[in-house]
Amino acid sequence: MSQIRELLDCFKKVATCPGKIVREYREKTGKGAVGCFPVYTPEEIPHAAGMLPVGMWGGETTLRLAPSALPSFACSIMQSITELQLQGVYDSLVAVIVSSPCDTLKAMGQKWRRQVPCIQFAHSRNTKIDAAADYTRREYQSIRARLEAACATTISDEAIQTSVRIYNEHRQVMREFSGLAASHPDLVNPIDRHMVMKSAFFMRKENHTVLVKALNGLLAKAAKKPWEGVKIIVSGIMLEPVSVLEVFKQNQIAVVGDDLAQESRQYRVDAPEGADPLDSLARQWLSMYGCSLIPDPEKSRFSLLRSLVEQRGADGIVLCVMKFCEPEEFDYPPMKAYMEKNGINLLQIEIDQQIQSVEQIRTRIQSFAEILRAQRARRASIAQL
Amino acid sequence: MYTLGIDIGSASSKAVILADGLRPVAGQAIQAGTGSSGPKQAVERALDEAKLTLSDIAASVATGYGRFTCELTDRQVSEISCHARGVSHQLPSARLVIDIGGQDAKVIRLDAQGAVWQFLMNEKCAAGTGRFLEVMSRVLEISLREMGAYHDRSSRPAAVSSTCTVFAESEVISLLAAGAAKPDIIAGIHRSVAVKVCGLASRVGWEDDIAMSGGVARNQGVVKALEAELGRPIKITPEPQLAGALGAALYAFDQYQSKNKTGG
Ligand code: SF4
């Protein structure tokens, strides 16, 4: 038990002090860090250059400078990133890579005002035709070339191939962790779970894999205890600030699975291994599914969530809609209709990185937990009859 | 056997004492909310009304915005559950509950058993809440109590926006400056609240009986505007402001019963 706690604290330390981690990495290896914007940035390429790819998912900050670059209706996460950028927080990075899956991200390259080189690229929007793989591969090739210039190094095919293998293994280990955390809500609370996921953005993946494997080993051996609270699946872009997760914890809500862009979505699909590593990465993009940012006429996200609810025995879903995130907001009405039709409880909350108080969210989450508990009690009393 | 429900809102505090989980024996509302002496006063007055002391209370539950600050009990239930329970107890056929309180507006959809199925609350702005009406009553120099009567005298409700309290306030000031009649402005304000709440209601959906609780339900103007927007009659609980506290007292009764069952 205490070993599990020690490991969990270790992840928390990494997730909460990214600046220190980047500094230490630079001192130890003489190499720098490359900022990777959300989502689906092919981290394997900077990783193959020996860099530390770090995830840029904003953070809690007050907007003073961002309004000079972004309109007030840009999503909360890009507001934070812009604010931090303009404050100079990212100045020590070697480069940043920006993907373009939504209208806000598309404009972020233009909004980059610092000296650090900004490498913007676009995934193919159509993922069903062969030309899509060629197109995406060419975009990745361009990232490689621009990164080579920024890092003054060459990035070989072999190095990317090794990185692809490391990332595939990491994805596998993270999927296992998600399942094990779901079986041990008494040992891994919602904040711990988030910290394990988030710390992956600030460590070389081979090192993160070692730590998560150790944690998984301990969890696999730990006795399973019945959980008196409720179990939920969370969906959306991300679930922060921690004060919101704290509310989950206080209400005895276990997160038994997620479909968050910052967490499990990125671990859903492995890159097929092959002779051409950039082609492998492009094909990985083509096989991704179940995400508001990937064109998907079947909206497989909904059925995927439904099976996750069933597999993990969850009582409901909390949809965490990033404030002013259009792709997620567009998904809400059909998702609500789908869940209603399938008798799955769904609560929507708004995620705002500039949030000052969680009181409204507290009431919503507590009420939702009460509804789920009452339903469970009703089901149990019917079963007794 | 008596149970106590305390509803600590942003603008007022309410207390209800229930005998045997069925019969309310006292109900008090004080116009002072969380962080004030309101909660204590409401409980003291309710105990006086029922001729009881705190030691006669077998179980109690706090609800409302200030529920976690209540020193009289360590059990809290959300205002969504409490309002739904309080309304359902008095109007068992209700399937949609509209509650407009001091700083938020809630719509709660109930299932066939009267249990909460879905709910929505207003976003951060005070538009569509009691606070919105208070601001307007100050600008118009007409008390909240009189607003319902003014509403009835309107022939042409003015247009007042429903998205932002501050914008709406400046609109009302402009209307006054332009010489618009106060009854028309008030009817416009009520319609603005109704439009906001109707927006929430349409997101959870409604088809059957609609009930309303919360202090604002005493304003007939708002009720009429809501009925016009929803196209249906609305039933008001007997003492709408006390519905949340009543629900809390019912939850306290459940707690008492389950404690006695388990012997804990
Ligand atoms: S949160 Fe939504 S709108 Fe913002 S960058 Fe991500 S996908 Fe785009």
Describe the structure.
- The complex is a heterodimer of chains A (385) and B (264).
- Chain A has helices spanning 2-16, 18-29, 44-48, 76-87, 103-106, 130-151, 157-183, 190-199, 205-221, 242-250, 277-287, 300-312, 326-341, 359-384; strands spanning 33-36, 52-55, 95-98, 118-120, 230-236, 253-260, 316-322, 345-351.
- Chain A has 385 residues and is an alpha/beta fold.
- In chain A, α1 packs antiparallel against α9 (205-221) and α7 (157-183) packs parallel to α9 (205-221).
- Chain B has 264 residues and is an alpha/beta fold.
- Chain B has 8 helices and 9 strands.
- The mean pLDDT of chain B is 89.
- Chain A binds chain B through residues 350, 359-360, 363-364, 366-367, 370-371, 374-375, 378, and chain B through 65, 76-81, 104, 113, 115-117, 119, 121, 123-124.
- Iron/sulfur cluster is lined by residues 38, 75, 77-78, 102, 104-105, 237, 293, 322, 325-328 of chain A.
Key features of this structure:
heterodimer, A: 385 residues, alpha/beta, four-stranded parallel sheet, B: 264 residues, Nucleotidyltransferase, domain 5, 2 domains, five-stranded mixed sheet, 8 helices, 20% strand, binds iron/sulfur cluster
Layout of strands and helices, then pairs:
The complex is a heterodimer of chains A (385) and B (264).
Chain A lengths: L1 H15 L1 H12 L3 E4 L7 H5 L3 E4 L20 H12 L7 E4 L4 H4 L11 E3 L9 H22 L5 H27 L6 H10 L5 H17 L8 E7 L5 H9 L2 E8 L16 H11 L12 H13 L3 E7 L3 H16 L3 E7 L7 H26 L1
Parallel strand pairs in A: 1-2, 1-3, 3-4, 5-6, 5-7, 7-8
Chain B lengths: L1 E7 L4 E7 L3 E8 L7 H13 L6 E7 L15 H12 L5 E5 L4 E6 L5 E6 L8 H11 L6 H6 L12 H13 L4 H23 L5 E4 L6 H11 L3 E3 L6 H20 L2
Parallel strand pairs in B: 1-4, 5-8, 8-9
Antiparallel strand pairs in B: 1-2, 2-3, 5-6, 6-7
Bound molecules: iron/sulfur cluster.
The site of iron/sulfur cluster (SF4) has 14 residues of chain A, from helix 4, helix 5 and helix 13.
